[in-house]
Design a protein that fits this description.
Elements: H1 2-23, H2 36-42, H3 50-56, H4 63-70, E1 75-77, E2 81-89, E3 92-99, E4 103-109, H5 112-115, H6 125-133, H7 139-146, E5 151-156, E6 159-165, E7 171-177, E8 183-188
Antiparallel strand pairs: 1-2, 2-3, 3-4, 4-5, 5-6, 6-7, 7-8
């Protein structure tokens, strides 16, 4: 009976050591990337940041011209729609939205944390409403009032939208008519 226990123990020890030696071989381990989409997004090589790219784009640009400006080709994303988009990462992208034959809006979705500015002061809703009712204001006048430049977030044939985010995360978006240069709509979030 002792011999059987000893033989079983030795056999188990040999199997255990053999298993350990096989595991120590030079076989290369392959680890599956837990989030391959993020890796793809991190590898995007753009000519500009999303904020800078918007400064180089015009409403008359074609998708191909914007591909060249941004530095990579547009794709489509069923979650966002069927229009071409340039995804810089999961929180920042530019979309090319078409309405009819020649009505195009190029819109940037930008993570508000990345454009937050601690040095600006967003005016009260009532102050902006009063200014809109009394002949409106230009982008330059609003920049002066707020204390900082806005981020261009939308371009169309008829208007441009700029967005400001203050230190508390309040977002102000203002639409300026391309012809008159005056603000037509201001909204808070």
């Amino acid at each position: 009976m002792n011999w059987n226990r000893k033989a079983i123990f030795e056999s188990a020890l040999i199997l255990l050591l053999a298993g350990a030696l096989v595991g120590c071989g030079s076989k290369e381990e392959t680890k599956e990337d837990p989030n391959p989409e993020v890796k793809d997004q991190e590898e995007v090589k753009a000519n500009y940041s999303i904020v800078e790219a918007m400064k180089h784009i015009e409403a008359t640009n074609t998708v191909e011209e914007i591909n060249a400006i941004i530095g990579f080709e547009a794709t489509t994303d069923a979650m966002i729609g069927s229009d071409p988009i340039w995804k810089f990462d999961s929180d920042n992208w530019i979309s090319f939205e078409t309405f009819g034959d020649d009505d195009v809006t190029i819109r940037a979705t930008i993570d508000k944390e990345s454009i937050k500015n601690d040095n600006i002061s967003i005016p009260k809703t009532s102050d902006l409403q009063e200014a809109l009712n009394n002949g409106s204001f230009t982008y330059e006048e609003l920049v002066q009032k707020i204390g900082g430049e806005g981020t261009l977030t939308s371009i169309s044939k008829g208007s441009r939208i700029y967005t400001w985010v203050d230190k508390s995360g309040i977002r102000l978006s203002a639409t300026f008519n391309n012809e008159s240069g005056k603000c037509t709509i201001a909204s808070y979030r």
